[in-house]
Structure formats: structure tokens, C-alpha cells
Amino acid sequence: MDHLEAITDITDRERAVGVIDPRHIKFGSRKYYRYIGSLTIPPCTENVVWSIVRKVRTVTREQVRFLRVAVHDEWDSNARPLQSINKRSIQLFRPDNKVEN
């Protein structure tokens, strides 16, 4: 959470917070879903690869607030409704390198 606190500066200036190596993020599970979707905000650009960790984790309200301030998110809700899956496939990746559709 130190990185979140470091980037919640309300000014528009940039500040280095150091390098964050994604390999050090503890997900609690190596299983994850992956699919090709689109951005959640306009212009809703397609062909975005989404990776979603299978295990649900929790965060505190303070962590959500820090992140929303850091990315300048003033919205109270999603920018658009859920979209249909159409013909996209959702894959489950598991640690034993098996991929399930």
C-alpha cells in the first residue's frame, strides 16, 4: 500500500515511486482467466487482453480510495453496462500449464 499512498498526490506533477516488479505480486493462486475484451471507458477500444486472478481477494475502502485518487477516477459507477460475450472465448490458465476453454 505504500506505493498507493505515494501516488495519491493531488497535484498534477509526476513523482517517481520506484520500480514495481509484477513477479513480486502475491496473488494467492496461480490460476487465472484470460480473454480478449475492450477498455471499460470510452472509446471502449477493443482487443484488450484481460487477465483475472481466479481467487477473489479483498481490499480496504482506503486502498480503493487511494487507487481512485491516483488514477483520477471520480465516477460513482461503471462508464458503460456489461457487454455480451459474443464469440469470445474465456480461458482458464492453471499452474500445471494446462489451458481450459
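Second entry:
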Amino acid sequence: MRKIFILIFGTCFFYFMYVFKLKEIKYSFFIEFDNANGIVIGTPIKMRGMQVGSIKNMQLKQNCILVLAEIYSHNTIITKDSIIETTQTGLLNDSVIDIIPLNVFADYLNISPVSFSCDSSKIVCNNSYVLGDRGLNYDDLVRSTTRISQRFDDPGFFYLFHLFLKSSIEVAEGVSIFCKDFIYSLRLTTLNKF
């Protein structure tokens, strides 16, 4: 009976060790944004177009939105100089958080974001704090398009545009007459030489 208990206990122990070894070690860090820009809990985090994490929690602060980002693998190294921005994609304004590394980090084999000796001046470490930016946004596109259409509705703008076109036509006609006269004078001088 004792041997069976030891055998079952040993098998369970090695099974759990195997399962936990296969499981990746995740890490988290905080991102501060001025505006949520459509991100919610569960919003994907992408690096070079591949999903590497998601948003686990969000909190509204007095002057910002504080987001808890979870990266699925401690092998995903985010350099400190990376741009972290919200981007709206697709027709339904799905938001993602894009991480854009600016430089290649060559010493990634010797450093881990979950280690106690993590160098926070080079990479984003576990439980660190970074600032995020606003990237591509459909709301900005709609505002810009509205401003442009309002400019075209302005009668003063149309009058100035009409004057510009009229002046351009007069200048083009003057240049055309000048070119014709110049070519005519060149022909006369070449004929007078013979």
C-alpha cells in the first residue's frame, strides 16, 4: 500500500512539474494613456503584427487612464525605447495596442523581464510603468474630413479660390504669348543669319 501511495504521489509530482514547465511565465506592466481610445479589458497587444498579450485591467485616474498589460511570455522582450500606442483597425473600430520597437535589442539572451536583476533602463520589466500614445484614430479622420468640408462650404474660400484660378489662367496665357513671341524671334534671328 505504501509503495502504491509513493508511486501515485511521485507520478502526480512529475506530472505537475511537467505541466508547469511547459506553461509560459507571463509578466505584466502598467501603461498610462491620456484617453482610452476604445481599448477595453481584453484588448489585444500586438508587437510587429503578432498578438503577444492583452489588457487585464483598466482604471480611470484623475488625469489619465491606467492600463494593466499582460504579456503572455517572458521571452517577449520590449525595449524601453519602444513606441506603445493605441490604434483603431477594421471597419468596426476595433482597438489594439501596438508595440513598435525602435531599435534591435541584441543582448536579449542575458536579460529577462521577470528576473530580480532586470535592467529597467533597457527593457520593460515586470510591474514597470510606461507612457502610451494615441496612434491612428478614426475619430481624428472624421474631424479632419469635417473641417475640410466646412472650408469648402465657406463662400469666402470659394471667392479666393476663384480669384486664384482666374489669376493662374491669366498667368498661363501670358506665358503662352511670351513663349510664342520668343520662338518667333528665334526664328527671325536664325533666318537673318542666312
